[in-house]
Amino acid sequence: MATNALATSAIQRIVGVSPWAEQVRRSIELVAAHQSSVLIMGPSGTGKELIARAIHACSTRSKKPFIPVDCAVTTGTLFASHMFGHVKGSFTGATSSTLGCFRAADAGTIFLDEIGEMELELQAKLLRVLQQRVVVPVGSHQEVPVDVRVLAATNRDLAVEVNHSRFREDLFYRLNVVAIRTIPLRERPEDVPILAAGYLAELASRHGMPVCSLGAAAIEVLQGYAWPGNVRELENVLERAVMFSSGDQIDPDALSGLMRADEGGLPPATTLTPMAMAASRGILSATPLPGVYRVEPKQQPREKPASAPAAAVPDRAAAAPAAGEECWPTLADVERVHLERTLAATMQNKSLAAKMLGIDRSVLRRKLQRYGLEEGGGPLPPE
């Protein structure tokens, strides 16, 4: 097994103090010393490719190529060409010969991600490559020997796929020599603070983003969330939180506003995502920042007091203007639109919104409730 700095770094990237994390690190060191195929199974976003790269880095093949292949992207002849190569003129557009992923990975490792998405016809071709250790390029009859270690990953239960005749049984057993399972992030909450701290440091060092930290309350929010997108979702939430943070410590409200409230661990104030909440209040348009959108709030009529007679409180916003008369918004109309715009710009982060507006958070909360913008509460009568 390789013992260089690359191998040590690869092992250290499997972050966590949970029993699962410790077991996976030990498993990587054990299986890396051999040449057997490894099948990595688990939900999306749980680090299956990270494990595969660590196995390669710790193996005797670490100085040779590591070639990842997404089996869900291409199908048919294109996929066969991508995997096994083709000869010039073998099909329309084949102006030159190509090696294919298996020959490119010769003496190294090939990583077949989403192997459960592969078509049955291609599964048969892959099985022959694993059995015979040769590939036949598209348009050729010449067998080319290859020396490749195969690592595969899937978020499907391949045993179930075999029972439903969607995956070849012989290929399943050929791949499943050694199995490593990943688990959802919600099943290892003790790893969440370590993962979060590491990613925040990476954002600052690699991407030049502000250096931010998490307080105890923010960590509690992170550990209480179900994380349906697992580690990948955690990284996305933290990146957006840093982007919208006004200080060096991330506010718990900033995190809650970026998570899906219909998942476990968050107050059931709403079942909409922040983006859906913003869309319901205006029109979404893209900005130069990836994943960040601008919202132009809709101007809505003011609420009338329930106890006042209809004739005593004219609804200026809803009433049609007389001929030649301009529909002039009231201060309340302008304030409501500005509040909605600020909430959209901060992704519902009320602490940041209050700072941007130059008011206390309690004042902001009363204003939101007055205009019916506070989730879970109706509007208050106007002052």
Quick description:
The protein is of the alpha/beta class. Helix content is 41%, strand content 11%.
How would you characterize the overall build of this protein?
The structure is a single chain. Residues 262-295 and 297-320 have low confidence and may be disordered. The longest helix is centred in the middle third of the chain and has 16 residues, at 192-207. The chain folds into 3 domains: 5-183, Rossmann fold, CATH 3.40.50.300; 186-268, Helicase, Ruva Protein, domain 3; 273-309 and 327-383, Homeodomain-like (Arc Repressor Mutant, subunit A), CATH 1.10.10.60. It contains 16 helices and 11 strands. It is of the alpha/beta class. The chain has a 5-stranded parallel sheet.
SSE diagram, text form:
Layout: H1 5-12, H2 19-32, E1 38-41, H3 48-57, E2 66-70, H4 76-84, H5 101-104, E3 109-113, H6 120-132, E4 134-135, E5 144-145, E6 149-154, H7 158-163, H8 169-175, E7 178-181, H9 192-207, E8 213-214, H10 216-224, H11 230-244, E9 249-250, H12 252-258, H13 274-280, E10 282-286, E11 293-297, H14 331-345, H15 350-357, H16 361-370
Parallel strand pairs: 1-6, 1-7, 2-3, 3-6, 8-9
Antiparallel strand pairs: 4-5, 10-11
Helix pairs in contact: 1-3, 2-3, 9-11, 10-12, 14-15, 15-16
